[in-house]
Amino acid sequence: MQQRDAMGPDSTPAQQPPAADAAPLVGDLDLVIVGAGFAGLAMLNRARGMGLSAIVFERGDGVGGTWYWNRYPGARCDVESLEYSYQFDEVLQQEWQWSERYATQPELLRYANHVADRFGLRGQLRFGTTVLAADYDESADRWTVTTDRGDRVRARFLVMATGCLSSTNLPDFPGRDSFAGPTYHTGQWPHEPVDFTGKRVGIIGTGSSAIQSIPIIAAQARSLTVFQRTANYTVPAYNGPIDPDYEAAIKADYAGFRARNSQMMPAYGSSYPRRDESALSVTDAEREQIFEERWRHGGLPFMGAFNDLMLDDRANRTAAEFVRRKIREQVRDPAVADLLMPRQTIGCKRLCVDTGYYETFNRPNVTLVDVGRAPIEAITPTGLRTTDADYEFDCLVYATGFDAMTGTLLKIAITGRQGQRLQDKWHAGPRTYLGLGIAGFPNLFTISGPGSPSVLTNMLVSIEQHVGWIGDCIDWLRRQGKQRIEATEAAEDRWVEHVNAVADRTLYPSCNSWYLGANVPGKTRVFMPLIGFPAYAAHCAEVAAAGYDGFVHG
Ligand code: NAP
Description:
Layout: E1 26-34, H1 38-49, E2 54-57, H2 66-69, H3 90-95, H4 105-118, E3 125-126, E4 131-137, E5 142-147, E6 152-160, E7 183-185, E8 200-204, H5 208-220, E9 223-228, E10 234-236, H6 244-252, H7 254-262, H8 284-297, H9 313-330, H10 334-340, E11 352-354, H11 357-360, E12 366-370, E13 376-380, E14 383-386, E15 390-392, E16 395-398, H12 407-411, E17 413-415, H13 422-425, E18 444-446, H14 459-480, E19 485-487, H15 489-504, H16 533-545, E20 551-553
Parallel strand pairs: 1-2, 1-6, 2-3, 4-17, 6-18, 7-16, 8-9, 8-16, 9-12, 10-11
Antiparallel strand pairs: 4-5, 5-6, 13-14, 14-15, 19-20
The structure holds NADP nicotinamide-adenine-dinucleotide phosphate (NAP).
NADP nicotinamide-adenine-dinucleotide phosphate is lined by residues 76-78, 165, 171, 186, 204-210, 212, 229-230, 350, 353, 371, 376, 399-402, 455, 514, 519.
């Protein structure tokens, strides 16, 4: 493969960010990357290191992906900062100083911008540009990528770094556009601060985004009405400044820390790993004490109290009942506490991590409305109507989540070999091999795609594992003088079966989660991520070592 000028005979990939009114790009490249979140930045950096010509198209006006869009009050990561960061550069991980145990959205966005600057990536980032279509030309083994700004770029490889939670889910309530006041979606929050002081606010949804923002909005607004369809489990974050001694100890052997984390099922949490014991093998008092310790530690390691919480319904119920007791202790009004108590399997929807969520319902200006029992019928000019009553407010917040994992990919008209459209191929759910390749779509790679551990892990670890694998694969093809690689149908079929079989051995498929696509009306119900990072990463390495077993290349 030849390294080509990016955009024409006498221009290397632009060294300056393209101006907003830049002329459309027309040219031939090695690689087009879609998305400038953490995945796109890492992929671009790897491509540059390999001497590949590349461009990144990004819908937003800046880098950061999830952390660019999700600017709602209280947005922060639920994986600890020292883990939720890149490991590809030792100097970067040593020099960057996180201020808190769990980083806020502004700090994560600063970090993404720092990485873009430090590694000189800006010249190949084209912001404010939505990719509309990608078509594979079999005769030339090239993708043609077209955008809403008229760009038409041909490239040998196409990497979809489009994120797993990047298409918002906005329920199609009757009268949705009739509301007279401002409306917000947590996943598309304005860039300027929103001031709720003195306002009556309504919020729909009680997932992670709502659970983080509700305490902050409640403290500011005149009143907050929370419309809850399904109660969710949340554990306290116990966030705070990073302990300098802890940080120093990690940084003294960052590589060792990263290696230990990569051996954890979710690729994080080695400093407080899962206990290798059944919840049913200890006495009630011991179990209570273990849950209590984890609760006081804070965060997602709560689910590591025992090794069978996601495998055995009876074990799971012990953890669920522990959290329900905590809700009873924290919420003064027993009727409100009862409504806040989740009934589903704990952990089958992603566990939330909060600061002051349940206590917020003790505030006199907060009202909880059960729209599971009496669903929302319509949005009205002054608020909303359920089958029970009318509610009035000045501002409306949708915390209604995302069309996860496939939403953004399926918005792009991707056409592979023989005119096959990805929308058609995935009509009954996503099908991939390793969550990296798709039969019928040569030279296209997905980063943290469906069928890979992605959203069940520390995303940064999964992203870097995929970027490494894709970079190595392209390098291998180049050295072999090959132009094309494509997953076989047989390998893909086996992989889809494997992902389902692993999920079916657990309690994950037991509730209506976005992992299953069950939050979006009409979406096919398929468990999309693969459970377990270490075995997956080892398998990907074996596939590569065996000359890309399960792929055809030529
Ligand atoms: P979510 O977990 O999907 O929650 C969406 C909420 O909206 C749910 O309570 C859902 O109710 C409700 N909803 C949706 N449609 C509705 C309708 N038609 N009527 C009434 N209620 C409706 O979305 P999210 O809170 O944005 O979180 C998504 C994911 O993003 C998380 O699971 C997590 O992976 C990630 N995230 C992470 C962090 C973090 O790192 N701390 C923060 C925010 C988000 P049902 O449950 O009944 O469907």
